[in-house]
Every structure is written in C-alpha cells, then in structure tokens.
Amino acid sequence: EKFHKIDILINNAGIGKLLSIEDTSVEDFNLIMDTNVKSAFCFTKYAVPEMKKQHDGQIILTSSVTGIKGHADETAYTCSKFALRGFGQALDHELLDDGIRTCVFCPHAGATNFEVGFGRTKQGVQESGFLTPEDVANALLSVCTQPKHSRIVELRLASNNVKY
C-alpha cells in the first residue's frame, strides 16, 4: 500500500518429508503440495494483475534440483518441485508480453535447518560445504537485476562440492 506496486515476487515457501511412496499419506502429500505449489499459485495469481498494470515485474519460483532429477524417498517433494518448474514455464509464456519475467530457481542443498529436516545432522550440514544463504541471495539478486531486455528463465545453483 505504501509503495503502490509489486516489483518482485519470490515464491519460496517449501516443506518436504523424507518418505517413500508407500509411507506418504494422502495428508502428507496434500500438505506438501499445498505449501510448495498451491501457495505459489495463489500468491502469483494475486500479484499478476498489479504487475500487469505497471507492465513490469519479476516472479521467482523456488523449485529445486529435485525438480530436475527426482530423488528416491522424496516422492511428494519431488512431485511438488517438478510442478513448480512446469508452472514457471507456463507463466513465462503467458506473461512475458505483459512485461513480467519469470524465473524458476533450482538450488542444490543449502546449509540451513531445512536440510536437517531431511535426515542430516546440524553439524553435518555446517560442515557440508552446501550453499550458504548468501550464495542464494546473490544468485537471486542476479535474476532481479537483469536489464529489462533480458531474463534468466531457469537458474540452477550448486556448490562446487556437489556433482549433478
């Protein structure tokens, strides 16, 4: 309300559970899809009209390397991250002529508490050499500071100690 415009929308909400398909309840699946995909859809749906009015905007959808290559025992999480990539690709085609750029961000593991939830220890995450929050922030800044005549459609980010 104070600034009267939306320049950037970063859809970064995400949860995951380390569960096989057999161990994933429908409730687990719905929670993961609602948090990771439905929330991105809803925030985007309501930001787009404002961005269209100003014929400008940047939407970033945080997927994951798991949205590029599925991982065992992360079935629902993998499904949600692939869905975000498809959503981003559709938005890119739908909104580009309205001056709205879309980027799907696919980071590898980060040195955060999120990874502890995936069965790693805090010490293991700290010593992992995974991406730092600063690494991620710098990458997203590069997306948001592209000249208006260019865009980063998909960005994959990994630390040097990880091989795809």
- Write the CATH homologous superfamily: NAD(P)-binding Rossmann-like Domain
> What are the low-pLDDT stretches, counting only 5+ consecutive residues below 50?
none
Overall geometric form: globular
Order of helices and strands: EHEHEHHHE
Q: What number of domains? A: 1
Name the beta content range: 5-15%
Number of helices: 5
Number of strands: 4
Helix content: 40-55%
Termini separation: 43 Å
Task: Name the average pLDDT.
Answer: 86
**Regarding CATH, which class?**
Alpha Beta
Main β sheet profile = 4 strands, parallel
Q: Order of strands across the widest beta sheet?
A: 1-2-3-4
Q: Could you say what the CATH architecture is?
A: 3-Layer(aba) Sandwich
Give me the Rg, rounded: 16 Å
CATH-derived topology: Rossmann fold
Q: Which structural class do the helices and strands define?
A: alpha/beta
InterPro entries: NAD(P)-bd_dom_sf, SDR_fam
GO molecular function, one term: oxidoreductase activity
Family: Belongs to the short-chain dehydrogenases/reductases (SDR) family.
Keywords: NADP, Oxidoreductase
